[in-house]
Amino acid sequence: MNNDIERVLYSQDDIKAACERLGAEITRDYAGKRPLVIGVLKGVVFFMTDLMRELDFLTDMDFIDVSSYHGGTESSGEVTLVQDLSTDIEGRDVLLVEDILDSGRTLVYLQELLSARKPKSLKIVTLLDKPEGHQMAAHVDYVGFKVPNEFLVGYGLDYNEYYRNLPYVGVLKPEVYANK
Length: 180
Description:
Elements: E1 5-10, H1 12-29, E2 36-41, H2 45-52, E3 60-67, E4 80-83, E5 93-101, H3 105-115, E6 121-129, E7 142-146, E8 152-153, E9 169-172, H4 174-177
Parallel strand pairs: 2-3, 2-5, 5-6, 6-7
Antiparallel strand pairs: 1-9, 3-4, 8-9
Helix pairs in contact: 1-2
């Protein structure tokens, strides 16, 4: 797997430091609250786990699964709800955790879906924000890193479901996916 990586953007230590920074900021902002933390499957699993270890408040958690890549390297433009929440969010403070903000389509879809369910508040945290990839305006409250417009894998991010288990975020070599 490591041979398929052009370069490492963020090491395990970089990611740990970002989780600590974000955790401290979110803990401060949610003082006295008990939010529901919602992770967007599958890519968020590693980030959400590490981030939640840095939160110093009581919380519940749930997951939602949507798809827009359908195995490719770019968003298909169509977001599909694969698995809905099991928790009623009406009147709850909600923190939505994403792995990456790329085109913005998925996040806009989720913001509209969740807002329609009348949470008390809805804030978004993403580990990675790819500003050059934005095609829709999606508001994010907390960002770990701003990243270049390249195809990234590792730490939950995948290509055809592979590379998620890399302990870092790296740029996938174009020859790995160019002729697929």
